């Protein structure tokens, strides 16, 4: 099952070795260990742009992983892949599933906001101003939630919220 990394660098190798040692020491079930290996291999494939392979590993990890927090990160990464491939509706579905399991994922909130903002820009270009306004309001809602969880992050979003009058200049 272990995936051979094509771009093995010192940090990746070190992480893999440490993770393997920790998994041997920690009292985890066989399924939990196997889920982690699939997740790790999915991250490796994803970092190399091998999205189809990464999705296979993530789906296998989902079948085995029971911990809601860990499942949320798997779902989030699946959302990242779909977003990278321009499949925004699917990405939104996975980001929302991740948030259902773990509401403390500002990165998922941010990515949802980015998709809505993008849709708002597309609607503006097509002169569909009502749809544009709705998408921008949705983007603002999700960015505000992300900023509440991570106030020092998402500076561009904070600036957009301020310049569009959707947040006060505190």
From TrEMBL:
SMART domains, A to Z: TPR (SM00028)
TPR repeats: 35-68, 35-68, 72-105, 72-105, 120-153
InterPro entries (alphabetical): PSI_Ycf3_assembly (IPR022818), TPR-like_helical_dom_sf (IPR011990), TPR_rpt (IPR019734), Ycf3/AcsC/BcsC/TPR_MFPF (IPR051685)
Major localization class: membrane
Cellular localisation: Cellular thylakoid membrane; Membrane; Plastid
Keyword NADP listed: no
Similarity comment: Belongs to the Ycf3 family.
NCBIfam families per UniProt: PRK02603.1
Protein name: Photosystem I assembly protein Ycf3
Source organism of the structure: Halydictyon mirabile
Gene transcribed to yield this protein: ycf3
